[in-house]
């Protein structure tokens, strides 16, 4: 809980420094006057308020989540992409009315501090709320009785006030949309500094906008992910969604603003191709599983080979899920590499995301395997026998 915010501030500081050394010391230690600013806190709260208001707008669809312990299903508004488009319109209007978006990069440290503070306070409130929640509402993992562990992992599975679902709201909106907004601000500041944005900056912005737009377009798919179906809502997700994602995932664009990198068209084309391959695998695998879980008789997946399990659910054993046991992670990692490559090879810093994300997905994959083994027993062992590799064919 202390190391994650410390790493985030280290990255923010180092990205601005001349040497930009990932493993070197930060250029200076920011004092409270650099981190704390009531105006920035207000700006951050206004951002959360705007996203909450957009969440409450009428949705094109209301989806049902997975079945809960008490056999009920929660309902979720599918309007994340609408929130992205409306935010873009509002920001566009504000910029044309004179809002200096290019000034945002100068505020990243106090904004990250405000986000961290909010994540701590929010997690504490969630922990207290979970103390009075019924046992059926608790997550399988965050109820060890150790308050620090449970505060970190999250006790309640789907904390809500009326129909406002805090975890679902935080998962894809303030952080992901904030991330592309920070990227855009960095692009605008680069244009102010150097006359026009660099090709590398365009690529990083384009790739990451595609990723965020895709996540929000397929928002319903988040309802079958581990975060929603298994993990409680505590510090891990609150800090991850609200602070870690926007402020560290924009690291490549932050790096490029202070360390411009030459990039020719042939290399840019190769990088675009790598991103496209990653996206193709990522989207293909996620959509295939999602379609199958929603309706196994859907013609797009009905012909795939499956393994029956004692729970009545089936496991795909051909198509993307017959290649490796987590093809979606493989696609995600290939894209992560494509986001770093525009930053050249002179520094390790822009590769932080690929390194961290590999560790995260390897750990996440192991957690998921344990859960699937518990859930599906022998059928899962049979799946592992038929599909021996976890993420990378013939390697891992
Ligand atoms: P997955 O979408 O991979 O879901 C895992 C679940 O899928 C399993 O628990 C199981 O659940 C089901 N499943 C596993 N194997 C099969 C099979 N063979 N056939 C059918 N169902 C199967 O998990 P995540 O939530 O980890 O990832 C979702 C996406 O989000 C991924 O693309 C990942 O890369 C991305 N992600 C991105 C992050 C980021 O920071 N950028 C962070 C985390 C994830 P069940 O059987 O109950 O349906």
UniProtKB/TrEMBL annotation:
Lipid biosynthesis found in the keyword field: yes
Localization annotation: Endomembrane system; Endoplasmic reticulum membrane; Microsome membrane
GO CC, alphabetical: endoplasmic reticulum membrane; nuclear inner membrane
EC number, UniProt record: 1.3.1.70
Keywords linked to the UniProt accession: Cholesterol biosynthesis, Cholesterol metabolism, Endoplasmic reticulum, Lipid biosynthesis, Lipid metabolism, Membrane, Oxidoreductase, Signal, Steroid biosynthesis, Steroid metabolism, Sterol biosynthesis, Sterol metabolism, Transmembrane, Transmembrane helix
Pfam families per UniProt: ERG4_ERG24
Transmembrane segments: 41-59, 80-101, 107-128, 232-251, 263-282, 333-357
First and last residue of the signal peptide: 1-17
Pathways per UniProt: Steroid biosynthesis; cholesterol biosynthesis
Catalytic activity: 4,4-dimethyl-5alpha-cholesta-8,24-dien-3beta-ol + NADP(+) = 4,4-dimethyl-5alpha-cholesta-8,14,24-trien-3beta-ol + NADPH + H(+); 5alpha-cholest-8,14-dien-3beta-ol + NADPH + H(+) = 5alpha-cholest-8-en-3beta-ol + NADP(+); 4,4-dimethyl-8,14-cholestadien-3beta-ol + NADPH + H(+) = 4,4-dimethyl-5alpha-cholest-8-en-3beta-ol + NADP(+)
GO BP terms, alphabetized: cholesterol biosynthetic process
Family classification: Belongs to the ERG4/ERG24 family.
Role of this protein: Catalyzes the reduction of the C14-unsaturated bond of lanosterol, as part of the metabolic pathway leading to cholesterol biosynthesis.
UniProt name for this protein: Delta(14)-sterol reductase TM7SF2
Organism: Ursus maritimus (Polar bear)
This protein's encoding gene: TM7SF2
């Amino acid at each position: 809980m202390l190391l994650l915010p410390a790493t985030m501030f280290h990255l923010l500081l180092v990205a601005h420094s001349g040497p930009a050394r990932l493993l070197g010391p930060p250029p200076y230690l920011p004092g409270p006057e650099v981190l704390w600013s009531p105006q920035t806190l207000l700006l951050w709260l206004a951002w959360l308020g705007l996203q909450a208001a957009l969440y409450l707008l009428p949705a094109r669809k209301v989806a049902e989540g997975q079945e809960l312990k008490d056999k009920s299903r929660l309902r979720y508004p599918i309007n994340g992409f609408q929130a992205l488009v409306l935010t873009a319109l509002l920001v566009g209007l504000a910029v044309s009315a004179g809002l200096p978006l290019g000034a945002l990069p100068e505020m990243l440290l106090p904004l990250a501090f405000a986000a961290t503070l909010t994540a701590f306070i929010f997690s504490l409130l969630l922990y207290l709320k979970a103390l009075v929640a019924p046992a059926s509402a608790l997550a399988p993992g965050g109820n060890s009785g150790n308050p620090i562990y449970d505060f970190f992992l999250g006790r309640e599975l789907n904390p809500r006030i009326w129909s406002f679902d805090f975890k679902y709201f935080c998962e894809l909106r303030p952080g992901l949309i904030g991330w592309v907004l920070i990227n855009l601000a960095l692009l605008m500041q680069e244009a102010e500094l150097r006359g026009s944005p660099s090709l590398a900056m365009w690529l990083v912005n384009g790739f990451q906008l595609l990723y965020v737009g895709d996540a929000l377009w397929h928002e319903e798919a988040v309802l079958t992910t581990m975060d929603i179906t298994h993990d409680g809502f505590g510090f891990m997700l609150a800090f991850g969604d609200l602070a870690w994602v926007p402020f560290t995932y924009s690291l490549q664009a932050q790096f490029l603003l202070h360390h411009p990198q030459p990039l020719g068209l042939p290399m840019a084309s190769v990088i675009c191709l790598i991103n496209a391959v990653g996206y193709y695998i990522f989207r293909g695998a996620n959509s295939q599983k999602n379609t199958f879980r929603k309706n196994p008789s859907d013609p797009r997946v009905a012909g795939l080979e499956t393994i029956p399990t004692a729970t009545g659910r089936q496991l795909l054993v051909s198509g993307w899920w017959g290649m490796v046991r987590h093809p979606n992670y493989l696609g995600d990692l290939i894209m992560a590499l494509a986001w770093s490559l525009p930053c050249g090879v002179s520094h390790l810093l822009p590769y932080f995301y690929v390194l961290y994300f590999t560790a995260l997905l390897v750990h996440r994959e192991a957690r998921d395997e344990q859960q699937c083994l518990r859930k599906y027993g022998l059928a899962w062992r049979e799946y592992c026998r038929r599909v021996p590799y976890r993420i990378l064919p013939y390697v891992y």
